[in-house]
Amino acid sequence: EVDLEERLHELDLRSDSDIPDVPPPTDSTPEILKRALSGLSARWKNWWIRGILSLAMISGFFLIIYMGSFMLMLLVLSIQVKCYHEIITIGYRVYHSYDLPWFRSLSWYFLLCVNYFFYGETVADYFATFVQRREQLQFLIRYHRFISFALYLTGFCMFVLSLVKKHYRLQFYMFAWTHVTLLITVTQSHLVIQNLFEGMIWFLVPISSVICNDITAYIFGFFFGRTPLIKLSPKKTWEGFIGGFFSTVVFGFISSYFLAQHQYFVCPVEYNSETNRFVTECEPSELFQMKKYSVPPLLQAVLGWETVNMYPFQMHSFALSTFASLIGPFGGFFASGFKRAFKIKDFADTIPGHGGIMDRFDCQYLMATFVHVYITSFIRGPNPSKLLKQLLILQPEQQLSVYKTLKSHLVEKGILQPSLRG
Amino acid sequence: LQESESENKLDGETASDSESKSDFGGSSPVPTSDDTPEVLNRALSNLSSRWKNWWVRGILTLAMITFFFIIIYLGPIVLMTIVMCVQIKCFHEIITIGYNVYHSYDLPWFRTLSWYFLLCVNYFFYGETVTDYFFTLVQREEPLRILSKYHRFISFALYLAGFCMFVLSLVKKHYRLQFYMFGWTHVTLLIVVTQSHLIIHNLFEGMIWFIVPISCVICNDIMAYMFGFFFGRTPLIKLSPKKTWEGFIGGFFSTVLFGLLLSYVMAGYRYFTCPVEFNNDTNSFTVDCEPSELFQLQEYNIPVVLQSVLGWKTVRMYPFQIHSIALSTFASLIGPFGGFFASGFKRAFKIKDFASTIPGHGGIMDRFDCQYLMATFVNVYIASFIRGPNPSKLIQQFLTLRPDQQLHIFNTLKAHLVDRGVLGSLEDA
């Protein structure tokens, strides 16, 4: 069964770089827009289409925020699935691998597995009371990792069994492509949802900062742009980059100021098992209570104030906006490089004038992870209810020893009075 | 050890060796040099190629197993160092294959970036593990405490630096190659580094959780080969034509038996069954504890079916031996899929072996391909069925909470303990 030709040909995959051009995506602008704008020149027409769609997307975003956390989570999930689909489709086109046996089913199966694993780990914590009531769910939760691993293994074994002699390399490429895509899209989307549970403001401010940076960098570049920023994206300029940075920081301050006043945005999202709904009601933490800050002498001369009333959260928004403006664009450059590498214009043609969903979300890649890492490092510690749940699973002897350690710690810190009644 | 086609078909070599040989043929991008030591070459010069190969493999196998025993004797720290070295070598082997296949030695920055990412991911994982197990040590030293408190942030910043360097290093002509190598590096990290850290977690649980799984996989390899050699007739899978059903099934039963026997012997020693702990006073690792009930002999009733076969009514076994059945079963039934995956990979990229590190066997990856999934399985198994969460880690998390949260948890725990009768209601425990 040895293929003579395969045997003698030295394996040199540099030829993998010579891909045929992928056909440009079709123009999916709706007819109605086309007729309305038929009078304008091509440049302005494009501008108008992009502008209208931008407004449409932003309005849609506001609408969903109004509808609540659950809708937001559904939105995040749909976006994740669509992004995954877009990247996988590019893989299929690039490798002409539509005919690979099983591969489409396997890709979707792996997406399902990884989502099941992540949702089980995170969401289960938040629905603790809901889960406690139902026996079957308790079983699923207790052995969650094992079940997820078993599901993944099944997919892995199916992949191995599906290997076909002529297509080994293609199949391995697609396997790796699937896994890297899962790593990028699914992890980010779950971090976004965890940020959301922390408080909608942790979801809204980062995403808006990235969008704002996109738009203002484009506008500054359009009007003042002169010095190119990076060879990879010739349209980007230093003027746009710096102008975008300052605008985004200011925007972050202002939007945080407004959002910090409403409990709807500031409170952690909780699941109320009695009403079976998500609620955002709480005593706002000190992050969201006005404080007086002394203005540094440098700025005193500029602003004319000696102190200013700000929310502590606004200081954090400064960090978030800075990241969105300085490092966020690297996600965009990465996506540009990827598109050039695989000779595609856009990830897909889902949104007229803008390309695919991935095109809109490329700068958000790193933002979600950054926000999550930021929150766990600087804002809150671990989730108390998760901690409690783990404590209750321990063996009684372990619980007792933990209890003693905790008690001595609390007494030491004066949080607990060392009396006989505890 | 360049052998002719016909000899390949007659030789009873293990599958991972010969299928890739049979379609590799004349020229190869990664020629594996014959690095059998001169001594061996001379000693075996009289035998035919077939037996010479057998002897070389045999001697090296014994050498590796002896080495394994020696490092077990030397203790947990040496074991961890060895795991780390194996991890680095595996990473190096797979990345080198990528370079060879894509002729990408000239890609700017890429070698540096690959090693940098390896360092980052290892820093992240070791930081997470070390913080848990060395908790008191870390709390004492100020710089360590800060590093551990902001560990995730620091790791993420380090990774980001690498990511940005990658983006800045993109060169117009080589975009696609660079993305390939980036993807290759990340998948390799995912496979190699995560497995090695799960192994170390298993090791901390008790050396028995490290030794029994690895030995079961090795035993299955060897037994399946022997059974296949003597009784093999029905091919198992097209991917590895030398594997047979007889070898597979024979290997399965032998491995289960081997697992039971090995567990029985090891469960009697604290050195193997106790969790590895870091002793703050002596600043060294100790394995000293009261063996858990997993490692205390119990009477089991033999199912009626086996009573007639064995002639006993009850048997004294360690509960751990029951778990070892699960471990051996996984090693025999699913472990080989890791081997098939590696075979498929080698055929896909037209390589004979991952590298030529071990004479007669190939690279380190060739020896560890079946271990891929085993480490993850053992870790998931332990987390799901054996132990719960780590108490010291929980205490550590507790200390980072706000006072009101701490009080709430403390009171809930107290109520729970009183409820269970573990704590008297008017306590001063």
From TrEMBL, chain A:
Keywords: Lipid biosynthesis, Lipid metabolism, Membrane, Nucleotidyltransferase, Phospholipid biosynthesis, Phospholipid metabolism, Transferase, Transmembrane, Transmembrane helix. The keyword Membrane applies. This is Phosphatidate cytidylyltransferase. Signal peptide: none annotated. The gene is Cds1. Belongs to the CDS family. It comes from the Eukaryota. The chain crosses the membrane at residues 47-79, 100-119, 139-161, 173-193, 199-225, 237-260, 313-335. It is found in: Membrane. GO terms for molecular function: phosphatidate cytidylyltransferase activity. One of its GO terms (biological process) is CDP-diacylglycerol biosynthetic process. Pfam families: CTP_transf_1. Pathway: Lipid metabolism; Phospholipid metabolism; CDP-diacylglycerol biosynthesis; CDP-diacylglycerol from sn-glycerol 3-phosphate: step 3/3. InterPro entries: PC_trans (IPR000374), PC_Trfase_euk (IPR016720).
TrEMBL record, chain B:
It is a multi-pass membrane protein. Its EC number is 2.7.7.41. Residues 1-37 are annotated as: Disordered. The chain crosses the membrane at residues 54-86, 107-126, 153-171, 178-200, 206-232, 244-267, 320-342. It is found in: Membrane. It comes from the Eukaryota. Coiled coil: none annotated. Pathway: Lipid metabolism; Phospholipid metabolism; CDP-diacylglycerol biosynthesis; CDP-diacylglycerol from sn-glycerol 3-phosphate: step 3/3. One of its GO terms (molecular function) is phosphatidate cytidylyltransferase activity. One of its GO terms (biological process) is CDP-diacylglycerol biosynthetic process. It catalyses: 1-octadecanoyl-2-(9Z-octadecenoyl)-sn-glycero-3-phosphate + CTP + H(+) = 1-octadecanoyl-2-(9Z-octadecenoyl)-sn-glycero-3-cytidine-5'-diphosphate + diphosphate; 1,2-di-(5Z,8Z,11Z,14Z)-eicosatetraenoyl-sn-glycero-3-phosphate + CTP + H(+) = 1,2-di-(5Z,8Z,11Z,14Z-eicosatetraenoyl)-sn-glycero-3-cytidine-5'-diphosphate + diphosphate; 1-hexadecanoyl-2-(5Z,8Z,11Z,14Z-eicosatetraenoyl)-sn-glycero-3-phosphate + CTP + H(+) = 1-hexadecanoyl-2-(5Z,8Z,11Z,14Z-eicosatetraenoyl)-sn-glycero-3-cytidine-5'-diphosphate + diphosphate; a 1,2-diacyl-sn-glycero-3-phosphate + CTP + H(+) = a CDP-1,2-diacyl-sn-glycerol + diphosphate. Belongs to the CDS family. This is Phosphatidate cytidylyltransferase. It comes from Drymodes brunneopygia. The gene is Cds2.
